[in-house]
Structure formats: C-alpha cells, structure tokens
Amino acid sequence: MSEDSLPASKTTKPRFRKLKITGIALLLLAGFVFVNNTSLLAFPGGDAPQLLAHRGMSQTFDMSGVDSDTCTAERINEPRHDYLENTIRSMKAAFDAGADQVELDVQMTKDDQFAVFHDWELDCRTEASGKTRDLTMAQLRKLDIGYGYTADGGKTFPFRGKGVGMMPSLDEVFDEFGSQELLLHIKSDDPAEGELLAKRLSTLSDKRLRAITVYGGDKPIAALREKMPKLRVMSKALMMECLGWYEGLSWIGTVPASCRNTQLHIPESYAPWLWGWPHRFGERMASVGTRVVLVAGSGEHSEGFDSAESLRRIPEDFTGMVWTNSIEVVAPRL
Q1: Strand pairing of 101-108 and 114-116?
Q2: Which of these, 100, 255, 99, 89, lies nearest to 173 by C-alpha position?
Q3: Are 334 and 307 a contacting pair, CB within 8 Å?
Q4: Which of 196, 212, 224, 320 is a Cys-bridge partner for 292, taking CB atoms 3.0 to 4.6 Å apart?
Q5: Distance, CA of 264 to CA of 295 (rounded, Å)
Q6: For the domain with range 45-333, which CATH number is right: 2.60.120.10, 3.30.930.10, 3.20.20.190, 3.30.428.10?
Q7: Cα separation, 170 vs 94, whole angstroms
Q8: Cα atoms in the 13 Å half-sphere on the side-chain side of 162
Q9: Which whole-number Å values give the CA distances from 298 to 177, 186, 248, in the listed order?
Q10: Quick one: pLDDT at residue 51?
Q11: Which PROSITE patterns does UniProt cross-reference here (predicted)?
C-alpha cells in the first residue's frame, strides 16, 4: 500500500516525529553554540583594559577626509601639549601617563638603519623634501620634525624650530626602553624592509623580543616572519586569514592555527560579529599567544578611543588592549 493511500493520521505522525526530532536537534545545536560562545560564562582577567598609545603622546588632528596622502601636520587641532609623535620624549610621556604599549613608525634609511618617523616623504613635517630612505640617519637627525605643524592653516607654526635633532633611530628607542612593550609599524610594502628589520631584531634577546610586536605591509611582514617565525607580527593578510577561518570554524570553540602568536586590531564595528565577543574571544586568543586590540569605528586611519565619551563604548569588563591617540586624556579615566 502506498503512503498516498494511507489515512491522513498515519502519514502525519511519522512526518511530525521527523519535524520534532529536527526541531530538538536544532535547539540542542543552538544551545551548544550559545553556551560555547557566550561571554556570560567567561571570566575576564584583570581590572581594566590595557592601553596602546598610538605614536606615543602626540598632536591630534581632524580625521575627516583623511587618506593615505594627507599631510596631517597641516591640520592639527589646537595643541594641548608640546609633545611630537615618534620621539623619545613622547614615548616616555605615554608610558608615564599609563600606556601599556606604545606604537611607533619606522622608516628604512639610506645607510640601512631605521629612523623612527611617520612619513615616507619628508616635506610634510620637516623643512626637507624627498624620501626618508634617501637620507642617512645622521642627515635625518639634523632635520626639524616640528617644522610643518600648524593648527590655523599656515598662519602660525607652534613647533617650528623645536624639533631639531628629535628624530630618533630605532636603536635609540631600544636603548631607552629596554623592557617596555613596543609596537613597530613598517610603513612600506617593501620586503627588503622586513628582511633588514629581521637582521636588527635578531640581535635582541628572547626576553626583549617577547615585548615587541611588528605590523605593517603584507610583503615586509611575510619576509620578517620567514626570518623570525617566533616573533609576534600582524598584517592585513594575516588578520584576514585568521578572522576568516575563525568565523567559519570557531563557533565550536577551536582557534585556527593562523590566529596563533599575532596581534589582532579589531574595529569596534566588526567586533560584535565575532564568536564569543568579547570575553570568550579574548580567552581563546590569549590561549594561543595572541593579543586583542580594540580600535574605534571602522578602523580606518587609526581611529582611537580618544575622549571620555568614547570610552563608554568599550565593552564592560573588557581587558584586552584599547587603541588611543590621546593617552593623556584616556589613561586617567581608566
């Protein structure tokens, strides 16, 4: 006898049982996913977020319309202090204010050293022109790195003449900050820069290297990682690979191998879509030696948590790192 010729009651019961079993299975799966990823069952360690000071203590600027070629020194806000980014003095002030890690930019020089300076070109912040890498470290040290800063469209230059000799070498930074956490930013996409940095970093002790992270262009970071596989590094390609695999697999609690030993800069607009955000996600990354840094907005152009109001957007009990461009404003409030 075919199923079509059976009474309705006899055909409905098996179908109902199948639907019931499917429904129970889906509920169990949903329960498993919830329990495995909820932060309600995670216990964050520490008392407050750690702070990452972008470029040390520095001058802030209007970020509207900023792109990769914008000279930000020409659009600074009215100065609240006299510190200039990427200097020994500004880094020391950031650590003294409460920074747990300080970010700095490095540029390769003509004589195969590393200058600590933001720009590929010199004409935005200094009185010189041309590429940073076309001058030696000795030549760069003679420049006035405060020359181009203006808050009023060029009417006045409050730091002109005050930045002569203040561009440090990376060696000087290592000598000054022997144990503090540093985040080095390779600004180019030149693999030769990654190879040269690997050569310099390989002279440091394992203990010192554990407090150093390097991020930047995909090619130099790949070259650096090939030479120093144990060093904590991050690039856009590495982060996309990590998060892509994480979103696909980690609802079951696993952490992809591509997420190991790196530092993830997570935009706050994307963070809520991560499995287990914030505490379970943080626990998982910590278990594989990876740091989590929360950056403001969409993560474009180094947006940071720079005001008392912005701090309210940080998840409660978050104990990862928070990116800030105004360490002097944020640190006292945390």
Answers
A1: antiparallel
A2: 89
A3: no
A4: 320
A5: 10
A6: 3.20.20.190
A7: 17
A8: 13
A9: 31, 21, 21
A10: 97
A11: GP_PDE
Give the whole-angstrom CA distance, residue 221 versus residue 219: 5
Which residues are paired to 294 by β-bridges?
Answer: 266, 322
In this prediction, residue 173 carries a pLDDT of: 98
**Residue 262 contacts residue 290 (beta carbons within 8 Å):** yes
In the chain, where the domains are located: 45-333
Residue with tokens 């607009």, as numbered in its chain: 269
Q: Each residue of 175-232: pLDDT tens digit?
A: 999 999 999 999 999 999 999 999 999 999 999 999 999 999 999 999 999 999 999 9
What is the structure's pLDDT at 31?
Answer: 63
Q: In this structure, are residues 145 and 163 in contact, taking their beta carbons and an 8 Å threshold?
A: yes
* Bridge partners, 61 (sequence order): 76
Q: What is the pLDDT of residues 295-314, one digit of tens each?
A: 999 877 788 999 999 999 99
Nearest alpha carbon to residue 277 among 42, 30, 32, 100: 42
How is residue 239 written in tokens? Answer: 């982060």
**pTM as predicted:** 0.90
